[in-house]
Design a protein that fits this description.
single chain; binds flavin-adenine dinucleotide; 9 helices; 369 residues; 6-stranded mixed β-sheet
């Protein structure tokens, strides 16, 4: 039997960011993660740190996301210092294109909504016409009339991020155990025991951050966590010269290595994570409308992965009322929120209380639905 300060179930980017955050505060942490065949959004996402468009009708989410984006340079620097791994954070903003005057009006109205809801925090954005956008995005297609732009957005290498979080956790004395699928949790207030194979770990804190696997385990903690898989299909091109300096929402970014990552459907197909010709073509059509020169670039691979979606698309953070010391943490923008999870949420979990900043993200908001 091993005694630690905290057990984190789930070694995706959400569990790993929280585990790293707990370890940097001196807690002894064990991460128990599933198998290679497990559903893992953290290994199939688009790597965008995205603020623009987050939190319509829920200003707390806009602020949470923005604080994370602001903290991201510190996270990238700390991970580089601690592990030598460069997560390749680029913060040059991001754009959401529109293709009609009506699309422009809708986009502007949404940006204004975010500005109004941000209140004193403000929300800076620009509406760019075709020419202004073409100066930022060389090779822009004629169908694109313009875009909204915010400087808050950026991108990282999400696989490097996951690797760096694991490496940083280990350097701080934490443990990461793979092939350690948890079937049951023995819970009592501030006393949790988890057995996986020959390993038994006991701790006064437990963080359930198992992505879509959270649903099955939450009831052991007296919680009901409604999550739905949402499929996103992705294409990767061959490496080409750098031409695209910032991500285009709708699914176009150029990675640090030169490949283009295209696509990103949003489909509710249960746990079916296969690609479809229809889904991949949708991503290609959008990419060619925005950047026609991509017609000359070869596609080298494709995949689909499942987003971890709550009914209203906002995160779920909650401490169990029945078993204090147990927390659940899940969201559909784990890359964007990695800094908030490592620096803020981990601090709150260590203190044992989720304060006003995140209080609106409990499952109580679904009561009566
Ligand atoms: C196509 C696509 C594009 C995306 N693009 C972006 C983006 O650009 N920016 C952004 O911010 N976010 C993006 N996301 C979302 C982001 O990837 C997720 O929010 C994030 O990866 C969720 O991380 P997670 O750790 O909660 O879940 P996962 O990555 O799914 O990890 C869950 C982990 O828990 C483990 N697990 C499950 N059950 C158990 C169990 N019983 N015992 C032990 N371990 C268990 C699994 O093995 C897995 O490793 C995208 C997602 C997809 C699918």
């Amino acid at each position: 039997m091993t005694f630690h300060d905290a057990i984190v179930i789930g070694g995706g980017v959400v569990g790993s960011a929280i585990a790293f955050g707990l370890a940097r505060q001196g807690l002894k942490v064990t991460v128990l993660d599933g198998e290679d065949v497990a559903v893992r959004a953290s290994r199939g996402n688009a790597g965008v740190v995205w603020v623009q468009g987050k939190g319509y009708g829920r200003p707390e989410y806009q602020l949470w996301t923005r604080r994370s984006a602001e903290d991201w340079p510190n996270l990238a620097a700390e991970l580089l210092d601690n592990t030598g791994l460069n997560v390749r954070l680029e913060k040059r903003g991001g754009v959401v294109p529109y293709f009609s005057e009506e699309g422009r009006d809708k986009r502007k109205a949404l940006m204004e909504q975010l500005r109004t809801e941000a209140g004193n925090a403000g929300f800076e954005y620009d509406m760019l016409d075709h020419q202004e956008l073409a100066r930022l995005v060389p090779g822009l297609g004629p169908k694109v009339l313009g875009a909204s732009y915010t400087a808050y957005d950026g991108q990282v290498n999400p696989l490097n991020l996951l690797r760096a979080l694991h490496a940083a956790l280990l350097r701080l004395g934490g443990h990461y155990v793979s092939n350690a699928r948890v079937a049951t949790i023995e819970a009592a207030p501030h006393a949790f025991t988890v057995r996986t194979g020959p390993k038994t770990v006991t701790a006064p804190k437990l963080i359930l951050a198992a992505g879509l696997g959270t649903v099955a385990l939450a009831s052991s903690l007296g919680l009901s966590v409604p999550l739905i898989p949402q499929r996103g299909q992705t294409l990767i091109t061959e490496r080409v010269d750098q031409t695209l300096p910032l991500p285009i929402q709708g699914g176009i970014r150029q990675t640090h290595e030169g490949t283009f990552q295209l696509g990103g459907t949003a489909e509710f197909t249960g746990f079916d994570d296969r690609t479809t010709t229809h889904g991949l073509c949708k991503g290609v059509r959008f990419a060619l409308d925005c950047l026609p020169y991509l017609a000359g670039v070869k596609v080298v691979r494709a995949w689909a992965a499942l987003r971890v979606m709550s009914p209203d698309e906002f995160p779920i953070y909650e401490q169990s009322a029945e078993f204090p010391g147990a927390f659940v943490a899940t969201c559909h923008s784990g890359i964007t929120l990695a800094a908030a999870h490592a620096y803020r949420l981990a601090k709150y979990v260590a203190l044992g209380d989720l304060p006003a900043e995140v209080a609106c993200f409990t499952t109580r908001r679904f009561d009566g639905e």
